[in-house]
Hints:
Layout: H1 2-14, H2 16-23, H3 29-53
Amino acid sequence: MIKPAATDMVRIMCGDDVAKKLDVVPLSNDTLLRRIASMSANVKEQLISSIKQSREFSLQIDESTNVSDDA
């Protein structure tokens, strides 16, 4: 439902050639899950790399409680 509307908006704003590129973007659940997993792995790798390269860093730790006030 959203993709056809987005394609129409792109066609109006940018032209048919750009809208055709948007039409070939797959939006199945499996594709989205793969992309999300890939992006999260990339963010994790970047974070670990930054931590390894830094000489010093600090952690702030706080005790969490649930609605029953249990830690």
